[in-house]
């Protein structure tokens, strides 16, 4: 990368990211190119965003068509793409009503607001507390970082909003002990992705859902990373035989275009009325043209099933080829969120993988996270696994 770009970034951007000294300038399918012409196999998909690969043709066509027609009008008007995108979401999920926003944190913020407002104004029980879990990740706004079960995202931001409680994950007794007369909602990820790629225990999730139902507590599932086909189902909750009251989406929803959504069950509709929540940019004609094209492609081409198939192959190859690497502790995941837990820090392995032309990310210090796009081929999996096997065999 030209030194001038790096110097300008250092000088003019707030230092919120530890950036690699690399500028990616072009992408196609599973492949990326940097400004020096080096080619990379992308097994991180912009952190589970580009589920259809880079620059997917059908999505680009929908976007360009909409750019020629209309960009923005505000939610004071009917927006046909928004209504149609919402219908695609509700037709293909357990949800009944959608609110569009622009990011994951905003989707979770909307979920927290809707859960509280429903309990306080519809159920009229005064409940406000949101129970969340250690190692979870829910976003960076004040409410969502408070909901996040990781101390590092909270440091220096006091005072934090009240009404959140964080408890251990996969521990039903801890949840029973935490519930009280003020519990409004339980909010969780079905695979804790940022927290180290930990899929929830199926029995535990069924018990959580039953307990919530019995106690009138809303179950909010954060599907921001797991949704849109990533885990081998359109939404991860389908693996668990549950129906969340609210689930949230962002990352894969726009194939790389920024958009978020909160999807709620029918009874929650009355939780919001005109004016109780809103977003200037939420669900613009452009954003929802992209959502429509993304959902039509993922549902129409049965890509969740394809992701499930490729997941079986990826996990099998990893388990075979990494069997003799003593640095590797465990390979786990759900669909195409895969974690390789190692005996020590993996930062060096990530950098060496980049040097070998493979992009992967970490999930915590000791876990390598693989997030290939849903169209990844078996040949691309073979290539990624062979690079990782060689690096991990040598790692200590
Ligand atoms: C990425 C992520 C978020 C936050 O999304 P932003 O778009 O960065 O605000 C929230 N929850 C989960 C599970 C995520 O993976």
From TrEMBL:
Catalytic reaction(s) noted: N(2)-acetyl-L-ornithine + 2-oxoglutarate = N-acetyl-L-glutamate 5-semialdehyde + L-glutamate
Gene transcribed to yield this protein: argD
Cofactor comment text: Binds 1 pyridoxal phosphate per subunit.
Enzyme class, UniProt record, top EC level: transferase
Family recorded in the similarity comment: Belongs to the class-III pyridoxal-phosphate-dependent aminotransferase family. ArgD subfamily.
UniProt protein name: Acetylornithine aminotransferase
Pathway: Amino-acid biosynthesis; L-arginine biosynthesis; N(2)-acetyl-L-ornithine from L-glutamate: step 4/4
EC number: 2.6.1.11
Family annotation (InterPro entries): AcOrn/SuccOrn_fam (IPR004636), Aminotrans_3 (IPR005814), Aminotrans_3_PPA_site (IPR049704), Class-III_PLP-dep_AT (IPR050103), PyrdxlP-dep_Trfase (IPR015424), PyrdxlP-dep_Trfase_major (IPR015421), PyrdxlP-dep_Trfase_small (IPR015422)
Miscellaneous section: May also have succinyldiaminopimelate aminotransferase activity, thus carrying out the corresponding step in lysine biosynthesis.
Modified sites of kind N6-(pyridoxal phosphate)lysine: 251
Keywords associated with the record: Amino-acid biosynthesis, Aminotransferase, Arginine biosynthesis, Cytoplasm, Pyridoxal phosphate, Transferase
Localization per record: Cytoplasm
An example Gene Ontology molecular-function term: pyridoxal phosphate binding
């Amino acid at each position: 990368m030209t030194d001038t770009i790096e110097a300008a970034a250092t000088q003019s951007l707030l230092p919120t990211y530890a950036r690699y000294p690399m500028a990616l300038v072009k992408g196609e399918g599973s492949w990326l190119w940097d400004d020096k012409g080096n080619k990379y196999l992308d097994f991180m998909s912009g952190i589970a965003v580009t589920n259809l690969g880079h620059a997917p043709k059908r999505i680009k066509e929908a976007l360009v068509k909409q750019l020629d027609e209309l960009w923005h009008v505000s939610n004071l008007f009917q927006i046909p793409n928004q209504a149609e995108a919402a219908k695609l979401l509700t037709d293909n999920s357990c949800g009944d009503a959608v609110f569009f926003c622009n990011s994951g944190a905003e989707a979770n913020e909307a979920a927290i607001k809707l859960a509280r407002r429903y309990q306080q104004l519809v159920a009229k029980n005064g409940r406000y507390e949101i129970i969340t879990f250690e190692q979870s990740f829910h976003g960076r706004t004040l409410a969502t970082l408070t909901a996040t079960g990781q101390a590092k995202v909270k440091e220096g931001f006091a005072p934090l909003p009240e009404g959140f409680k964080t408890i251990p994950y996969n521990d039903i007794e801890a949840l029973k002990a935490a519930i009280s007369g003020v519990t409004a909602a339980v909010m969780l990820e079905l695979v804790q992705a940022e927290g180290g790629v930990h899929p929830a225990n199926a029995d535990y999730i069924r018990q959580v859902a039953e307990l919530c139902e019995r106690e009138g507590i809303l179950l909010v599932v954060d599907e921001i990373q797991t949704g849109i086909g990533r885990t081998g189902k359109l939404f991860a909750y389908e693996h668990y035989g549950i129906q969340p009251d609210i689930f949230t989406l962002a990352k894969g929803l726009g194939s790389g275009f920024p958009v978020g959504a909160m999807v709620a069950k029918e009874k929650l509709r009355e939780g919001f009325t005109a004016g109780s929540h809103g977003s200037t940019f939420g669900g613009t004609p452009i954003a929802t043209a992209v959502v429509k094209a993304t959902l039509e492609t993922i549902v129409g081409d049965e890509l969740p099933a394809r992701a499930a198939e490729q997941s079986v192959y990826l996990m099998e190859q990893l388990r075979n080829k990494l069997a003799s690497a003593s640095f590797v502790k465990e390979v786990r995941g759900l669909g195409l969120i895969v974690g390789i837990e190692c005996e020590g820090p993996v930062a060096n392995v990530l950098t060496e993988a980049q040097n070998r032309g493979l992009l992967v990310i970490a999930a915590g210090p000791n876990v390598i996270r693989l997030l290939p796009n849903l169209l990844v081929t078996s040949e691309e999996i073979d290539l990624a696994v062979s690079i990782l096997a060689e690096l991990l065999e040598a790692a200590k």
